[in-house]
Amino acid sequence: MRKVDVFGKKQNLTRPFYLIILIFAVVLPGYFVIQNYFTVKTEELTKERLNLQSQVNKLLLQSEQDVLLEIDQIIPYLPTSFSQNAVSSELNSVRDLSGLTLATDYATNFVNDSVMPFDSSLPSTLKAVKITVSMSVDDGSKTLDYLDNLMDLDTIYYIEDVSVNYLANDNAQVVVIFYTFYNDIIVN
């Protein structure tokens, strides 16, 4: 390579080398500074996420405890009348949601003004309706889905008894006994 350019000036071949070293001297520490910044930021966000997760867990536990109310606390939220057609429609939709549409021998029995299933003394305006649902199903485990869907409804149900009897032909006879309540008062 020539040591003099076309104009007669002496060429300095070390200048590009110094420029490359200068670029590496700026870029390499900059990379480590940025990497460190993002590592610290990630750790802060992880701590914040864990803190938020623990707060959410506390709220969920608190809300689960709040759901378990005494009967006296529920009375103001009860309906003032009982509609057998509305409850029958609700139970049919629960059956369909649970995959028990093809259940045979499906029967629902309502006993209005039945005896309260609780030992505590309650107001005389509080009325209980005993509901017995019986059906033959091809899979007894779908009964759990039925109960879960029943409990997810806005109507208050108290499940007293569930019996699943497996038959010889791999079917199951399911009987669910539960109560719903209403506050028999006149609202003006």
How many strands in all?
Answer: 4
Roughly how much helix do the residues carry, as a percent range? 40-55%
Uncertain segments are none
CATH class of the largest domain: Alpha Beta
Largest sheet features: 4 strands, antiparallel
- Based on helices, strands and strand pairing, what is the structural class? alpha+beta
| Radius of gyration from the alpha-carbon trace, in angstroms | 36 Å
CATH topology value of the largest domain = Alpha-Beta Plaits
Strand order of the largest sheet: 1-2-4-3
Note the overall shape.
Answer: elongated
What's the helix-strand series? HHHEEHEE
Secondary-structure arrangement, i.e. CATH architecture of the largest domain? 2-Layer Sandwich
| Count of separate DSSP helical elements | 4
Question: So, the CATH homologous superfamily of the largest domain?
Answer: Ribosomal protein S6/Translation elongation factor EF1B
Residue-averaged pLDDT = 84
Strand content: 15-25%
Give an overview of the whole structure.
- The protein is an alpha+beta fold and 188 residues long.
- The chain folds into 2 domains: 1-68; 74-183, Alpha-Beta Plaits (2-Layer Sandwich), CATH 3.30.70.60.
- It has helices at 15-67, 71-74, 84-97, 142-151, and strands at residues 104-114, 126-137, 157-166, 172-183.
- A 4-stranded antiparallel beta sheet has the order 1-2-4-3, with helices on one face.
- Strand 3 and strand 4 (172-183) form a beta hairpin.
- The N and C termini lie far apart (107 Å).
- The model has no long low-confidence stretch (mean pLDDT 84).
Task: Describe, in short, the structure shown.
With 188 residues, this protein is of the alpha+beta class. It is built from 4 helices and 4 strands; from the N terminus they run H-H-H-E-E-H-E-E.
